[in-house]
Amino acid sequence: MDFDSQEIKQCIKALKTIDFELAYLAALTCEGLKPLSRWEKPLDHNELKLLQQLGLLTEQITRTVKTGKQVTEAIFSVSAGYIQLYEKRFGDKPIDKSAATVRFEGFLFGFPPCCVDEYIQHPYAKNNLEPEVQKILFHWACKDCKITPILLPGYLRIHEYVEEC
Ligand SMILES: [Zn+2]
Q: What's the CA-to-centroid distance between 22 and ligand 1, angstroms?
């Protein structure tokens, strides 16, 4: 992603008017820090177009909740392969929170496997991150994580960029 491009800044700015987190997720995904991201609500044509202008592939996925009610999720990625993996595994399927699902989601969303395993065993166990730092991540870091500190500079840089757009 060309951080100096005015066109990209305009896109990020427009996404921020929908939701800061959507803009931040889009930028992280463009940069490849997350292979795929999920927005747990449908997006309209214009919103999807903004993501596509950033170079992202988008898809809307229908899932069901326990009551049988249908919900729509939007997913986006630079890779058609990851979109297909998500669609194949979760398209038209009920939403579940099993360990196998959390593991596969972690793989797609770019979460360190150590953090995913720790989260399955002990959700939100105390870690060594400052709360302000933990807040800009989408995974809960495991204690003494060896991968999160390597990812952090990228997350911080993109968070700052999106804030400034
Ligand atoms: Zn970890």
A: 24
Q: Residue 146: count other Cβ atoms within 10 Å of its Cβ.
A: 9
Residue-wise pLDDT tens for the chain (165 aa)?
888 899 999 999 999 999 999 999 999 999 999 999 999 999 999 999 999 999 999 999 999 998 889 999 999 999 999 999 999 999 999 999 999 999 999 999 999 999 999 999 999 999 999 999 999 999 999 999 999 999 999 999 999 999 999
Sheet arrangement for strand 36-39: 36-39, 70-77, 57-64
- What separation in Å is there between the alpha carbon of 153 and the centre of ligand 1? 15
Domain boundaries defined on the chain = 6-164
